[in-house]
Write a structure and sequence with these properties.
The protein is α/β, with parallel strands linked by helices and 260 residues long. It contains 8 helices and 8 strands; from the N terminus they run ββαβαβαβαβααβααβ. It starts with a strand and ends in an 8-residue tail after the last strand.
């Protein structure tokens, strides 16, 4: 768990002085969300579950740009590990977590109804409902004390597309939307905003070798999105530029679907 920094304070930006905690940030969308938040001035806790090397690479990318990053290994589906990770981040940077990005995911098997059982659904709910709940409970004391905070959940366009043989994943991502809106209503009076970004198919490491032609042809903008497209949306919602936006679901998929 290396504390990487090239400067004594965050670089200037719309998130200057903030501490962000990004789950699943060792690779994929999480990596580039973490990098973008750092480029906007936030110190970033890079949460990961498996690869020390990948997490340290994310931290190194942030340090190279002059930002601050701390790689923190934790299973976010386990309450004790979540509390310890949040405490470690806040102790390392000397401030409370002001931005939480619930991005982490696990395996995403495609299964027919006949081949599915309840455990398949529970596995998805653990990442997209249980983990965000544990994390929000861990950061809420600091956000309440500060009278502000931004929580950004990472959803998916599959909620609207209803992909066949993918019901466990679609169901859990759908639950995130209701959770986002309920939390926004409850936490708004405390100055804490909760929003959701619903990406389209953004090719990352797990999609290596997959053909994108058919998907891109259905997107009104006629191209695939890039991780930086999602990262920019997250950074906006995390910042004070979005200070009057809460409870919203922002589709970032070139117009393939519309906001829910």
């Amino acid at each position: 768990m290396q504390h990487s920094t090239n400067s004594p304070s965050p670089i200037p930006g719309k998130l200057k002085g903030k501490l962000a905690f990004v789950t699943g940030a060792s690779r994929g969308l999480g990596r580039w969300i973490a990098v973008e938040l750092a480029q906007q001035g936030a110190a970033v806790a890079v949460n990961y579950a498996h690869s020390d090397e990948d997490a340290e690479h994310t931290a190194a990318l942030i340090a190279k740009a002059g930002g601050e990053a701390l790689a923190i290994r934790a299973d976010i589906t386990k309450e004790e590990e979540v509390r310890e990770a949040a405490g470690q981040a806040e102790a390392a940077f000397g401030r409370s977590i002001g931005v939480l990005v619930n991005n982490a995911t696990g395996p995403q098997p495609m299964l027919s109804i006949e081949d599915s059982d309840w455990k398949d659904y529970e596995d998805q709910l653990a990442f997209f409902v249980k983990a965000p709940l544990l994390l929000v409970k861990a950061v809420l004391p600091g956000m309440r004390a500060a009278g502000s905070g931004s929580i950004v959940n990472i959803g998916s366009e599959v909620v609207q597309l209803g992909n066949a043989r993918f019901a466990s994943y679609v169901t859990a991502k759908s639950a995130m939307i209701g959770m986002t809106r309920s939390w926004a209503s409850e936490l708004g009076p405390a100055g804490i905003r909760v929003n959701l970004v619903a990406p389209g198919w953004i090719p990352v490491e797990r999609h290596a070798g997959a053909s994108t032609d058919d998907y891109a042809g259905r997107v009104p903008l006629q191209r695939m999105g890039e991780p930086k497209d999602i990262a920019a949306a997250v950074a906006f919602l995390a910042s004070d530029e979005a200070r009057f936006i809460t409870g919203q679901c922002l589709s970032v998929n070139g117009g393939l679907t519309f906001g829910i």
